[in-house]
Amino acid sequence: MDVVLDGVNKIYPGGQHAVHDLRLRIEDGELFVLLGPSGCGKSTVLRMIAGLEELTSGDLWLGGSVANGLSPRDRNVAMVFQNGALYPHRSVRGNMMFPLEITRGDPDEARSKVRELARALGLDSMLDRLPGTLSGGQRQRVAMGRALIREPALFLMDEPLSSLDAGLRAELRVEIAALVRATGATTVYVTHDQVEAMTMADRIAVLREGVLEDVGTPEQIYHDPATVFVAAFLSSPPINLLRATAWAVQDQGVVLDMGSQHLTLPWDDPRASALISHHGAPVTIGVRADALTQATSEPTGQELIGHVRTLEFHGHEWLAYAEAGIPSVDPAEFTQRPIQPPTPVQPSRIRALFGRSTPEPEPEPERTGHHRRTDLIFRITTGPRPARGDDVRLAVDLERLLVFDSKGRRVDPVAR
Ligand SMILES: Nc1ncnc2c1ncn2[C@@H]1O[C@H](COP(=O)(O)OP(=O)(O)OP(=O)(O)O)[C@@H](O)[C@H]1O
After folding, report:
1. 12: Cβ below 6 Å to ligand 1?
2. 44 CA distance to ligand 1 centroid (A)?
3. Where are the alpha helices (DSSP H) in 103-233?
4. Fewer beta carbons within 10 angstroms: which end of the chain, N or C?
5. Which residue minimizes the CA distance to atom 25 of ligand 1?
6. Stated pTM of the model
7. Considering only CA atoms, which residue is closest to atom 20 of ligand 1?
8. Rounded to the nearest whole angstrom, what is the distance from the C-alpha of residue 131 to the centroid of ligand 1?
9. What are the residue ranges spanned by the domains of the chain?
10. Quick check: CB of 16 below 6 Å from ligand 1?
11. Percent of the chain topping pLDDT 70
12. CATH superfamily of 3-229
Protein backbone atom coordinates (compact mmCIF):
# COMPACT_ATOMS: atom_id res chain seq x y z
CA MET A 1 0.00 0.00 0.00
CA ASP A 2 1.45 3.38 -0.90
CA VAL A 3 1.13 6.35 1.45
CA VAL A 4 0.93 9.96 0.36
CA LEU A 5 0.97 12.96 2.67
CA ASP A 6 -0.17 16.00 0.76
CA GLY A 7 0.39 19.35 2.49
CA VAL A 8 -0.21 17.88 5.93
CA ASN A 9 -0.23 20.14 8.98
CA LYS A 10 -0.74 19.20 12.57
CA ILE A 11 -1.46 21.84 15.18
CA TYR A 12 -2.18 20.40 18.63
CA PRO A 13 -4.96 21.95 20.71
CA GLY A 14 -2.37 23.84 22.82
CA GLY A 15 -1.18 25.59 19.61
CA GLN A 16 1.94 23.46 19.07
CA HIS A 17 2.53 23.38 15.31
CA ALA A 18 4.09 19.90 15.25
CA VAL A 19 4.04 19.22 11.47
CA HIS A 20 4.39 21.88 8.74
CA ASP A 21 3.04 21.39 5.26
CA LEU A 22 4.48 17.91 4.90
CA ARG A 23 4.61 16.42 1.40
CA LEU A 24 5.81 12.84 1.12
CA ARG A 25 5.20 9.83 -1.06
CA ILE A 26 6.01 6.44 0.40
CA GLU A 27 6.01 3.71 -2.25
CA ASP A 28 4.31 0.36 -1.92
CA GLY A 29 6.63 -2.16 -0.21
CA GLU A 30 9.15 0.45 0.81
CA LEU A 31 10.98 0.46 4.15
CA PHE A 32 10.73 4.16 4.82
CA VAL A 33 12.39 5.77 7.84
CA LEU A 34 11.30 9.02 9.49
CA LEU A 35 14.43 10.38 11.13
CA GLY A 36 14.99 13.41 13.31
CA PRO A 37 15.82 14.63 16.80
CA SER A 38 13.43 14.35 19.70
CA GLY A 39 10.34 16.53 19.28
CA CYS A 40 10.67 16.99 15.49
CA GLY A 41 7.24 15.50 14.85
CA LYS A 42 8.07 11.95 13.75
CA SER A 43 5.62 10.21 16.07
CA THR A 44 2.93 12.73 15.19
CA VAL A 45 3.31 11.83 11.49
CA LEU A 46 3.17 8.13 12.29
CA ARG A 47 0.12 8.52 14.48
CA MET A 48 -1.67 10.49 11.76
CA ILE A 49 -0.96 7.66 9.29
CA ALA A 50 -2.29 5.16 11.85
CA GLY A 51 -5.43 7.22 12.40
CA LEU A 52 -4.65 7.87 16.07
CA GLU A 53 -4.29 11.60 15.47
CA GLU A 54 -6.36 13.85 13.22
CA LEU A 55 -4.81 15.98 10.49
CA THR A 56 -5.32 19.72 11.05
CA SER A 57 -5.14 20.29 7.29
CA GLY A 58 -3.94 18.51 4.16
CA ASP A 59 -4.67 15.02 2.92
CA LEU A 60 -3.51 11.53 3.74
CA TRP A 61 -3.82 8.99 0.95
CA LEU A 62 -3.58 5.26 1.66
CA GLY A 63 -3.50 2.90 -1.30
CA GLY A 64 -4.83 5.56 -3.66
CA SER A 65 -7.78 6.82 -1.56
CA VAL A 66 -8.09 9.75 0.81
CA ALA A 67 -8.01 8.29 4.33
CA ASN A 68 -8.34 11.42 6.50
CA GLY A 69 -11.57 10.30 8.15
CA LEU A 70 -10.97 6.54 8.13
CA SER A 71 -10.96 4.86 11.57
CA PRO A 72 -7.72 3.11 12.59
CA ARG A 73 -9.24 -0.34 12.22
CA ASP A 74 -10.32 0.35 8.66
CA ARG A 75 -6.81 1.25 7.56
CA ASN A 76 -5.21 -2.23 7.49
CA VAL A 77 -2.25 -0.96 9.48
CA ALA A 78 -0.37 -2.51 12.40
CA MET A 79 1.77 -0.55 14.81
CA VAL A 80 4.63 -1.40 17.17
CA PHE A 81 5.68 1.08 19.85
CA GLN A 82 8.85 1.58 21.83
CA ASN A 83 7.65 -0.73 24.58
CA GLY A 84 5.34 -3.03 22.68
CA ALA A 85 2.95 -3.74 25.56
CA LEU A 86 2.15 -7.45 25.79
CA TYR A 87 -0.60 -9.19 27.72
CA PRO A 88 1.31 -10.32 30.82
CA HIS A 89 -0.85 -13.35 31.55
CA ARG A 90 -0.80 -14.75 28.06
CA SER A 91 2.06 -16.82 26.69
CA VAL A 92 4.13 -15.77 23.70
CA ARG A 93 1.84 -17.92 21.58
CA GLY A 94 -1.25 -16.37 23.17
CA ASN A 95 0.01 -12.87 22.53
CA MET A 96 0.85 -13.54 18.92
CA MET A 97 -2.41 -15.38 18.36
CA PHE A 98 -4.55 -12.62 19.84
CA PRO A 99 -5.21 -10.56 16.67
CA LEU A 100 -6.28 -13.71 14.84
CA GLU A 101 -8.67 -14.70 17.66
CA ILE A 102 -10.40 -11.34 17.31
CA THR A 103 -10.95 -11.88 13.61
CA ARG A 104 -12.18 -15.45 14.39
CA GLY A 105 -10.13 -17.20 11.73
CA ASP A 106 -9.46 -20.94 11.53
CA PRO A 107 -7.62 -21.86 14.81
CA ASP A 108 -5.41 -24.53 13.17
CA GLU A 109 -4.36 -22.11 10.51
CA ALA A 110 -3.71 -19.49 13.18
CA ARG A 111 -1.50 -21.88 15.16
CA SER A 112 0.59 -22.78 12.15
CA LYS A 113 0.95 -19.14 11.23
CA VAL A 114 2.17 -18.36 14.75
CA ARG A 115 4.71 -21.20 14.55
CA GLU A 116 5.99 -19.99 11.21
CA LEU A 117 6.34 -16.39 12.31
CA ALA A 118 7.87 -17.40 15.67
CA ARG A 119 10.52 -19.31 13.73
CA ALA A 120 11.29 -16.26 11.61
CA LEU A 121 11.58 -14.17 14.78
CA GLY A 122 13.71 -16.72 16.65
CA LEU A 123 10.96 -17.27 19.21
CA ASP A 124 10.04 -20.87 18.42
CA SER A 125 11.59 -22.25 21.61
CA MET A 126 9.70 -19.83 23.86
CA LEU A 127 6.13 -20.05 22.64
CA ASP A 128 4.83 -21.22 26.02
CA ARG A 129 6.64 -18.64 28.14
CA LEU A 130 5.05 -15.57 29.71
CA PRO A 131 6.31 -12.08 28.73
CA GLY A 132 7.68 -11.50 32.25
CA THR A 133 10.23 -14.26 31.72
CA LEU A 134 11.59 -12.78 28.46
CA SER A 135 14.38 -10.29 27.81
CA GLY A 136 13.57 -6.83 26.41
CA GLY A 137 14.67 -7.86 22.94
CA GLN A 138 12.56 -11.01 23.02
CA ARG A 139 9.53 -9.03 24.16
CA GLN A 140 9.97 -6.62 21.23
CA ARG A 141 10.12 -9.60 18.87
CA VAL A 142 6.84 -10.87 20.27
CA ALA A 143 5.29 -7.42 19.83
CA MET A 144 6.44 -7.43 16.22
CA GLY A 145 5.11 -10.92 15.71
CA ARG A 146 1.75 -9.85 17.07
CA ALA A 147 1.68 -6.89 14.69
CA LEU A 148 2.80 -8.88 11.65
CA ILE A 149 0.51 -11.86 12.14
CA ARG A 150 -2.46 -10.07 10.62
CA GLU A 151 -0.38 -9.43 7.50
CA PRO A 152 -1.07 -5.69 7.45
CA ALA A 153 -0.62 -3.76 4.23
CA LEU A 154 1.14 -1.07 6.24
CA PHE A 155 3.42 -1.62 9.18
CA LEU A 156 4.21 1.33 11.46
CA MET A 157 7.02 1.20 14.01
CA ASP A 158 7.78 3.92 16.54
CA GLU A 159 11.33 3.55 17.90
CA PRO A 160 10.85 -0.18 18.50
CA LEU A 161 14.48 -0.68 19.51
CA SER A 162 15.13 2.38 21.63
CA SER A 163 14.77 0.64 24.99
CA LEU A 164 17.31 -2.04 24.09
CA ASP A 165 21.08 -2.02 24.54
CA ALA A 166 23.37 -1.19 21.63
CA GLY A 167 24.41 -4.76 20.79
CA LEU A 168 20.88 -6.04 20.68
CA ARG A 169 19.73 -3.04 18.65
CA ALA A 170 22.35 -3.70 16.01
CA GLU A 171 21.31 -7.35 15.82
CA LEU A 172 17.57 -6.70 15.76
CA ARG A 173 17.65 -3.93 13.19
CA VAL A 174 19.11 -6.36 10.66
CA GLU A 175 16.43 -8.92 11.49
CA ILE A 176 13.57 -6.43 11.40
CA ALA A 177 14.65 -5.05 8.04
CA ALA A 178 14.92 -8.54 6.58
CA LEU A 179 11.59 -9.61 8.03
CA VAL A 180 9.50 -6.65 6.91
CA ARG A 181 11.06 -6.80 3.46
CA ALA A 182 10.15 -10.48 3.28
CA THR A 183 6.51 -9.71 4.12
CA GLY A 184 6.37 -7.11 1.34
CA ALA A 185 4.39 -4.74 3.62
CA THR A 186 5.06 -1.03 3.31
CA THR A 187 6.87 -0.05 6.50
CA VAL A 188 7.20 3.36 8.08
CA TYR A 189 9.82 3.27 10.81
CA VAL A 190 10.46 6.14 13.23
CA THR A 191 13.84 6.64 14.85
CA HIS A 192 16.17 9.36 16.09
CA ASP A 193 19.16 7.05 15.53
CA GLN A 194 20.93 7.89 12.28
CA VAL A 195 22.81 4.58 12.15
CA GLU A 196 19.54 2.69 12.42
CA ALA A 197 18.08 4.85 9.65
CA MET A 198 21.09 4.52 7.35
CA THR A 199 21.42 0.78 7.74
CA MET A 200 17.74 -0.16 7.45
CA ALA A 201 16.03 2.28 5.12
CA ASP A 202 15.23 2.16 1.45
CA ARG A 203 14.61 5.88 1.83
CA ILE A 204 14.83 8.32 4.71
CA ALA A 205 12.91 11.53 5.41
CA VAL A 206 14.72 13.88 7.79
CA LEU A 207 12.44 16.07 9.89
CA ARG A 208 13.31 19.00 12.08
CA GLU A 209 10.90 21.18 14.02
CA GLY A 210 8.06 19.67 12.02
CA VAL A 211 9.63 20.65 8.67
CA LEU A 212 10.86 18.14 6.09
CA GLU A 213 14.54 18.92 5.57
CA ASP A 214 15.37 16.21 3.06
CA VAL A 215 14.22 12.90 1.63
CA GLY A 216 16.18 10.31 -0.31
CA THR A 217 18.09 7.06 -0.17
CA PRO A 218 20.70 6.78 2.60
CA GLU A 219 23.45 7.44 0.03
CA GLN A 220 21.68 10.47 -1.41
CA ILE A 221 21.12 12.20 1.88
CA TYR A 222 24.62 11.37 3.12
CA HIS A 223 26.61 12.39 0.03
CA ASP A 224 24.23 15.01 -1.32
CA PRO A 225 22.39 16.50 1.69
CA ALA A 226 19.91 19.31 1.04
CA THR A 227 20.69 21.29 4.19
CA VAL A 228 23.42 21.90 6.75
CA PHE A 229 21.25 20.27 9.37
CA VAL A 230 21.03 17.01 7.40
CA ALA A 231 24.77 17.02 6.66
CA ALA A 232 25.52 17.44 10.35
CA PHE A 233 22.87 15.07 11.64
CA LEU A 234 24.15 12.19 9.51
CA SER A 235 27.83 12.68 10.18
CA SER A 236 29.98 10.65 12.50
CA PRO A 237 32.58 11.94 13.26
CA PRO A 238 31.00 15.41 13.08
CA ILE A 239 31.28 17.14 9.72
CA ASN A 240 33.53 20.22 9.70
CA LEU A 241 31.27 23.24 9.16
CA LEU A 242 33.30 26.31 8.31
CA ARG A 243 32.10 29.86 8.02
CA ALA A 244 33.15 31.63 4.83
CA THR A 245 32.26 34.46 2.52
CA ALA A 246 31.88 33.73 -1.20
CA TRP A 247 33.63 36.11 -3.60
CA ALA A 248 33.29 35.77 -7.35
CA VAL A 249 36.68 36.63 -8.84
CA GLN A 250 36.84 37.02 -12.60
CA ASP A 251 39.92 35.03 -13.56
CA GLN A 252 39.88 32.56 -10.73
CA GLY A 253 36.47 31.30 -9.79
CA VAL A 254 34.63 31.60 -6.53
CA VAL A 255 36.87 32.18 -3.57
CA LEU A 256 35.57 30.83 -0.29
CA ASP A 257 37.13 33.21 2.17
CA MET A 258 37.47 31.87 5.69
CA GLY A 259 39.43 34.81 7.07
CA SER A 260 42.92 33.49 7.53
CA GLN A 261 42.51 30.77 4.88
CA HIS A 262 40.65 30.29 1.63
CA LEU A 263 39.74 27.72 -1.02
CA THR A 264 38.83 28.42 -4.64
CA LEU A 265 36.18 26.73 -6.75
CA PRO A 266 37.23 27.20 -10.39
CA TRP A 267 34.68 28.49 -12.87
CA ASP A 268 34.23 25.07 -14.49
CA ASP A 269 32.90 23.76 -11.18
CA PRO A 270 29.08 23.77 -11.26
CA ARG A 271 28.98 25.06 -7.69
CA ALA A 272 30.94 28.12 -8.72
CA SER A 273 28.19 29.31 -11.06
CA ALA A 274 25.59 28.61 -8.39
CA LEU A 275 27.62 30.79 -6.03
CA ILE A 276 27.66 33.89 -8.27
CA SER A 277 24.40 35.06 -6.75
CA HIS A 278 25.95 34.67 -3.30
CA HIS A 279 28.81 37.03 -4.04
CA GLY A 280 29.74 38.76 -0.79
CA ALA A 281 27.33 36.63 1.21
CA PRO A 282 28.09 34.28 4.08
CA VAL A 283 28.16 30.60 3.22
CA THR A 284 28.85 27.47 5.19
CA ILE A 285 31.37 24.96 3.90
CA GLY A 286 30.87 21.33 4.91
CA VAL A 287 33.88 19.01 4.77
CA ARG A 288 33.70 15.53 6.22
CA ALA A 289 36.68 14.17 8.13
CA ASP A 290 37.51 11.73 5.33
CA ALA A 291 37.56 14.47 2.68
CA LEU A 292 40.69 15.90 4.30
CA THR A 293 44.00 14.12 3.82
CA GLN A 294 47.43 15.10 4.90
CA ALA A 295 49.14 16.59 1.85
CA THR A 296 52.56 15.27 0.96
CA SER A 297 53.02 16.78 -2.52
CA GLU A 298 53.66 20.39 -3.53
CA PRO A 299 51.12 22.93 -2.27
CA THR A 300 48.24 23.45 -4.69
CA GLY A 301 46.54 26.30 -2.89
CA GLN A 302 43.54 24.06 -2.23
CA GLU A 303 44.62 23.05 1.22
CA LEU A 304 43.84 24.02 4.78
CA ILE A 305 46.56 24.48 7.34
CA GLY A 306 46.12 23.28 10.89
CA HIS A 307 47.99 22.69 14.09
CA VAL A 308 47.34 19.25 15.55
CA ARG A 309 45.95 19.49 19.03
CA THR A 310 44.67 15.98 19.76
CA LEU A 311 44.78 12.52 18.26
CA GLU A 312 42.23 9.87 19.04
CA PHE A 313 42.60 6.15 18.37
CA HIS A 314 39.41 4.48 17.14
CA GLY A 315 40.73 1.03 16.27
CA HIS A 316 40.21 1.08 12.50
CA GLU A 317 41.33 4.69 12.20
CA TRP A 318 42.74 7.69 13.99
CA LEU A 319 40.94 10.99 14.24
CA ALA A 320 42.99 14.14 14.49
CA TYR A 321 41.78 17.54 15.72
CA ALA A 322 43.65 20.52 14.34
CA GLU A 323 43.33 24.22 15.13
CA ALA A 324 42.92 26.13 11.89
CA GLY A 325 41.68 29.52 13.09
CA ILE A 326 38.52 29.23 11.02
CA PRO A 327 35.17 30.22 12.55
CA SER A 328 32.91 27.20 12.78
CA VAL A 329 29.18 27.04 12.26
CA ASP A 330 26.63 25.53 14.57
CA PRO A 331 23.94 23.77 12.48
CA ALA A 332 21.37 24.75 15.13
CA GLU A 333 21.72 28.35 13.85
CA PHE A 334 19.71 27.52 10.77
CA THR A 335 16.04 27.00 10.71
CA GLN A 336 14.05 26.73 7.52
CA ARG A 337 11.59 29.34 8.86
CA PRO A 338 12.55 32.84 10.16
CA ILE A 339 14.13 35.39 7.83
CA GLN A 340 17.30 37.07 9.04
CA PRO A 341 17.50 40.88 8.78
CA PRO A 342 20.15 42.23 6.36
CA THR A 343 23.19 44.26 7.44
CA PRO A 344 25.79 45.92 5.19
CA VAL A 345 28.98 44.17 4.08
CA GLN A 346 32.44 45.70 3.62
CA PRO A 347 33.47 45.48 -0.05
CA SER A 348 36.95 46.44 1.14
CA ARG A 349 37.45 42.83 2.18
CA ILE A 350 37.66 41.59 -1.41
CA ARG A 351 39.98 44.43 -2.37
CA ALA A 352 42.24 43.55 0.54
CA LEU A 353 42.30 39.91 -0.56
CA PHE A 354 42.82 40.34 -4.27
CA GLY A 355 43.63 43.98 -4.87
CA ARG A 356 40.99 44.39 -7.52
CA SER A 357 37.48 45.63 -7.85
CA THR A 358 34.55 43.28 -8.41
CA PRO A 359 30.80 43.69 -8.75
CA GLU A 360 29.03 45.13 -5.73
CA PRO A 361 28.14 42.27 -3.41
CA GLU A 362 24.64 41.49 -2.23
CA PRO A 363 23.89 42.61 1.35
CA GLU A 364 25.12 40.18 3.91
CA PRO A 365 22.47 38.82 6.27
CA GLU A 366 23.24 39.19 9.93
CA ARG A 367 25.13 36.32 11.43
CA THR A 368 23.27 35.17 14.43
CA GLY A 369 25.80 32.62 15.67
CA HIS A 370 28.71 33.01 17.95
CA HIS A 371 32.16 32.85 16.37
CA ARG A 372 33.37 29.63 17.84
CA ARG A 373 36.67 28.38 16.56
CA THR A 374 36.75 24.66 16.92
CA ASP A 375 39.11 22.21 15.39
CA LEU A 376 39.19 20.67 11.96
CA ILE A 377 38.59 16.97 12.34
CA PHE A 378 40.36 14.71 9.90
CA ARG A 379 40.69 10.99 9.54
CA ILE A 380 43.92 9.04 9.26
CA THR A 381 43.61 5.45 8.06
CA THR A 382 46.97 4.78 6.41
CA GLY A 383 50.33 6.46 6.00
CA PRO A 384 52.33 8.51 8.46
CA ARG A 385 50.52 9.97 11.42
CA PRO A 386 51.24 13.48 12.64
CA ALA A 387 52.13 14.03 16.26
CA ARG A 388 50.46 16.41 18.66
CA GLY A 389 51.77 19.91 18.07
CA ASP A 390 52.66 19.31 14.40
CA ASP A 391 51.57 21.73 11.72
CA VAL A 392 49.71 19.91 8.94
CA ARG A 393 48.67 20.77 5.42
CA LEU A 394 45.34 19.14 4.60
CA ALA A 395 44.37 18.58 0.99
CA VAL A 396 40.65 19.13 0.54
CA ASP A 397 38.76 16.79 -1.76
CA LEU A 398 36.90 19.58 -3.55
CA GLU A 399 34.54 17.09 -5.20
CA ARG A 400 33.12 16.35 -1.77
CA LEU A 401 32.94 19.91 -0.54
CA LEU A 402 29.39 20.92 0.37
CA VAL A 403 28.43 24.59 0.19
CA PHE A 404 25.34 25.94 1.96
CA ASP A 405 23.76 29.37 1.72
CA SER A 406 22.96 31.76 4.55
CA LYS A 407 19.75 29.83 5.30
CA GLY A 408 21.60 26.54 5.50
CA ARG A 409 20.39 25.20 2.13
CA ARG A 410 22.72 23.79 -0.50
CA VAL A 411 23.71 26.39 -3.08
CA ASP A 412 23.75 23.80 -5.89
CA PRO A 413 20.74 21.61 -6.63
CA VAL A 414 20.62 18.17 -5.02
CA ALA A 415 20.06 15.17 -7.28
CA ARG A 416 17.00 13.09 -6.39
N1 LIG B 1 -0.79 15.43 22.40
C2 LIG B 1 0.00 16.48 22.25
N3 LIG B 1 -0.43 17.71 22.61
C4 LIG B 1 0.35 18.81 22.44
N5 LIG B 1 1.58 18.78 21.89
C6 LIG B 1 2.07 17.57 21.52
C7 LIG B 1 1.30 16.37 21.66
N8 LIG B 1 2.04 15.34 21.20
C9 LIG B 1 3.21 15.86 20.78
N10 LIG B 1 3.21 17.21 20.96
C11 LIG B 1 4.30 18.15 20.60
O12 LIG B 1 4.51 18.08 19.21
C13 LIG B 1 5.88 18.10 18.89
C14 LIG B 1 6.25 16.83 18.12
O15 LIG B 1 6.09 15.71 18.97
P16 LIG B 1 6.36 14.22 18.49
O17 LIG B 1 6.07 13.30 19.62
O18 LIG B 1 5.67 13.98 17.21
O19 LIG B 1 7.93 14.29 18.21
P20 LIG B 1 8.98 13.10 18.02
O21 LIG B 1 9.89 13.55 16.95
O22 LIG B 1 8.28 11.81 17.81
O23 LIG B 1 9.73 13.12 19.40
P24 LIG B 1 10.30 11.90 20.27
O25 LIG B 1 11.39 11.27 19.44
O26 LIG B 1 10.81 12.60 21.48
O27 LIG B 1 9.15 10.98 20.52
C28 LIG B 1 6.62 18.21 20.21
O29 LIG B 1 6.96 19.55 20.40
C30 LIG B 1 5.62 17.74 21.23
O31 LIG B 1 5.82 18.40 22.46
Report:
1. yes
2. 6
3. 107-120, 136-148, 166-183, 194-200, 218-223, 228-233
4. C
5. 38
6. 0.87
7. 39
8. 29
9. 3-229, 238-404
10. yes
11. 90
12. P-loop containing nucleotide triphosphate hydrolases (3.40.50.300)
